[in-house]
From TrEMBL:
<dbReference type="GO" id="GO:0004252">
    <property type="term" value="F:serine-type endopeptidase activity"/>
</dbReference>
<dbReference type="InterPro" id="IPR000209">
    <property type="entry name" value="Peptidase_S8/S53_dom"/>
</dbReference>
<dbReference type="Pfam" id="PF00082">
    <property type="entry name" value="Peptidase_S8"/>
</dbReference>
<feature type="domain" description="Peptidase S8/S53">
    <location>
        <begin position="4"/>
        <end position="179"/>
    </location>
</feature>
<keyword id="KW-0645">Protease</keyword>
<protein>
    <submittedName>
        <fullName>Subtilase family protein</fullName>
    </submittedName>
</protein>
<dbReference type="InterPro" id="IPR036852">
    <property type="entry name" value="Peptidase_S8/S53_dom_sf"/>
</dbReference>
<comment type="similarity">
    <text>Belongs to the peptidase S8 family.</text>
</comment>
<keyword id="KW-0378">Hydrolase</keyword>
<dbReference type="InterPro" id="IPR023828">
    <property type="entry name" value="Peptidase_S8_Ser-AS"/>
</dbReference>
<keyword id="KW-0720">Serine protease</keyword>
<dbReference type="GO" id="GO:0006508">
    <property type="term" value="P:proteolysis"/>
</dbReference>
<dbReference type="InterPro" id="IPR051048">
    <property type="entry name" value="Peptidase_S8/S53_subtilisin"/>
</dbReference>
Amino acid sequence: MSPNNGGGVGLAYGAKIMAIKAGQSTGSFASSDIAKAVKYAADNGADVINMSFGGISKSYLVEEALIDASHDCVLVAAAGNDSAPTADGGGIDIYPAGYNYVIGVMAADNSGNLAKFSNWDFIIGENCEYELAAPGVNIYSTLPGDRYACWSGTSMAAPNVAAAAAIIRSKYTDKNKYTSRFIMGQLVSATSSIANMLRRFIIIVIYPRAMI
């Protein structure tokens, strides 16, 4: 998106968007379609892949596509809206957000607290992992037919993290020197000057005291 006199402006408004349809008209997602979409994005030069979807089932096809893509792309996914902890806390694990090569994104509310609907990581460093929380309540976005509305969910939070990843990648363009893992590390490390800069930026622009 680019600045204009109406509508909205994305956080990484200078980024190019590769819109790929991985879901079906019914709202369901087939593993084969997800794998094809991820592979297409990676093969065509995507730096960041945002996945505002997820489920409790794992898929070898999807895992293989994501692992291949993770060498060149920062992978971001929504943690889900079941108000549930990960399975190690008696809840459910959501994938692809839970894979350790994907940044799993929870949702924060306007006060910077975990949104009531958001899933969360019960034990840090164990099995299924969600790494960050980002603004996910009443997010202004686009609808078909040149319309706009506010929506809530981890699917709205994940693109904020994807945008932050795109901003970092625009500074560190050499993928041989600065791998996708490096970009992920900048985002999730609390001591990173880059991450702190982005936190200040998003706190000011989106919500006060947001978690990213």
